[in-house]
Protein 1
Amino acid sequence: MRWPHGGPGVLLVHGFTGRPEDLAPLGEALGQRGYNVYAPCLAGHGETWRELRASRAEDWRRSAELALLELVEEGQGGGVAVCGLSMGGMLAVDLAAHFPVRALALINPAAGVRQRAASLAPLLWPVIPSIRLREGDNLDRLPLRSVAELLRCTREALSHAPAVRAPSLVLQSEFDPMVRPAASKALFERLGSRKKEFESLALHEHVPKEQAPLFAERIVGFLDSVFGVSA
């Protein structure tokens, strides 16, 4: 999804099993402020669980990296910021550790999932290829190998977090049903940014829906301050 404008570039990275549409409210808010916004679909996502199973953490990372480089090549407005939701937040950390991005914003980063059974995925996936998901999820089944790849993605991003230098904002739902807020705070502490802010929101949503305008307001304000965008 694109919101093309002449201002600074902003890359939006969706989460595990998610879609770019999950970040559409944020993209629209940033577009209204004149930012040049790109929300790509990560490799293996947006279609079937079998396509997700065939992709790996490096494929997801490469999708985000190519999108970032595309924004950089467009060269509008003096730099690019990266915003990530859940697993996309971990990919955003990895990008910020390896590229000179202007700012980093994370929404409920998947630094530590609540489901302890997820830690068994690396052992279980050769025996149990997938599990059924509840009705209403983006996919009808979840490949356990992909969960193992998610854990690998998280470990690698955590190891690279100290190399991040860009101003950073971490927004965490206090009652997030998917990730542990304490893990997000630990990730925040590991970030090497001199200027960084952690905000705990008294919310229950993991993927912002009803409260999407609140998340968008916080991130737009943060990026405006970094890029010097005036009201």
Note: The CA atoms of residues 132 and 161 lie 33 Å apart.
Protein 2
Amino acid sequence: MKVKVINRSAFALPSYATPLSAGMDLKANLTEPIVLEPLQRALVPTGLFLGIPEGYEAQVRPRSGLAAKHGITVLNSPGTIDADYRGEVKVILVNLSSESFEIKPGERIAQLVVARCEQVAWEEVPELDETRRGEGGFGSTGK
């Protein structure tokens, strides 16, 4: 699938790290580092503008390495970029650790996954089909 992109960053376009990768790394389009203090959040620009095709969305997800090693994650995970959005892609990062974290220019800060999505048409009904699970939720299926 082809996706139109404008790259106003100082860095190469996102690409897949391995042949079977689902996501591409997004980079911080910064001219100088920014420091995220514990529990602080920041809107980090990428310099990318996307033309997502109708019927698709782009999802901004955390990078597992940043989360596991430094407690840095995407606050509204996954963040959705709608097919009709044409502004700059920015990532809301939050520092959930107890230490400061420096985001450097060009640092890989999140992953971008493009996925098909459907819009629904609601059909109001008086009751739903019975299932084995029923109303069980929040851990009801066991550990």
Note: The chain has one domain: 4-116.
Protein 3
Amino acid sequence: MYKRSLQLVLVIVVAVTMLGAGSPSTRFDQVGHKLMCTCGCAEILLECNHVGCPNSSVEIAELHTQMNAGASDSQIFKVFAAKYGPTVLAAPMRGGFDDVAWVVPFAVLILGILGIVLLLRMWQRRHARLTPALPDAPLTPESEALRDRIRNETKYGE
């Protein structure tokens, strides 16, 4: 039992070490891939590869400065969003109005579908209530005469 516990601890230590948990370069890559370059190329900040980009080197330097100052990921995102606008974020931040911006379109879609279903049911019930049932009795001579008159008056071009 002691050997198994020791092996399990060794496997966990090796796994955490191999994954690079907490290394600064990994964190820099993760944060840098959640930001967009603001030059208009629509590229991720760390992947902006067009020649002579005036913004990517400045933003990458800012990212290094923020990380060296010990800022958390959310603080870095807030600083970048405040300076460059919300379009600098590759994905919206969670919380506040951003949650509403993600939820409202789906809620409106669901409410719209429900509204249409209710409207169709209401129309169907109204139609069933207003449509008289057809009589089972044969037509009377008066109703046959009325039918023939309607057919004659509604003939088109004959």
Note: The radius of gyration is 35 Å.
